[in-house]
């Protein structure tokens, strides 16, 4: 007998295919994440391919690690937890998040976005 997922299909925005780990969609920051649950501390880590590593202390039980990650990131970005949407990956380490109108950017993200802006302004 095979297990069937009981998760309901997501009724919201479609996932955005992205080369870099983050991109702007209007005023919303779209972020591809590789999560690490049950870590020693909550932390935003390094870029790993097309994802940003984010560690959280919560255990991966019934989506609790993702919920904890959303609350942790809300504080890091200066937004309310309700301003962060989990597009996919609520029960998986691979996630895509949409952060509505972040008030501040963690250094790794700010550095990446500043680099993209320079390339867009100075293509030569």
Helical amount: 10-25%
Q: Tally the helices.
A: 2
Largest sheet: 6 strands, mixed
Total E-strand runs: 6
Shape verdict = globular
| Radius of gyration (Å) | 15 Å
Strand residue content: 25-35%
What structural class do helix, strand and pairing data support?
A: alpha+beta
N- to C-terminal separation? 58 Å
Uncertain segments are 1-11
What is the CATH architecture descriptor?
2-Layer Sandwich
Please write the string of helix (H) and strand (E) elements.
Answer: EEEEHEEH
Describe the structure.
By secondary structure, this protein is of the alpha+beta class. The protein has helices spanning 64-77, 107-121, and strands spanning 22-25, 28-36, 43-48, 51-55, 84-88, 94-100. The protein has a single domain (24-121), classed as YggU-like (Conserved Hypothetical Protein Mth637, Chain: A), CATH 3.30.1200. Strands 1, 2, 3, 4, 5 and 6 form a 6-stranded mixed sheet that branches.
């Amino acid at each position: 007998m095979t297990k069937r997922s009981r998760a309901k299909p997501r009724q919201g925005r479609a996932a955005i295919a992205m080369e870099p780990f983050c991109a702007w969609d209007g005023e919303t920051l779209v972020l591809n994440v590789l999560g690490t649950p049950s870590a020693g501390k909550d932390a935003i880590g390094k870029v790993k391919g097309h994802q940003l590593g984010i560690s959280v202390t919560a255990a991966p039980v019934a989506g609790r690690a993702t919920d904890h990650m959303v609350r942790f990131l809300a504080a890091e970005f200066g937004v309310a937890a309700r301003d962060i949407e989990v597009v996919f990956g609520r029960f998986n380490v691979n996630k895509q998040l949409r952060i509505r109108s972040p008030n501040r950017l963690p250094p790794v993200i700010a550095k990446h976005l500043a680099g993209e802006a320079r390339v867009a302004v100075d293509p030569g």
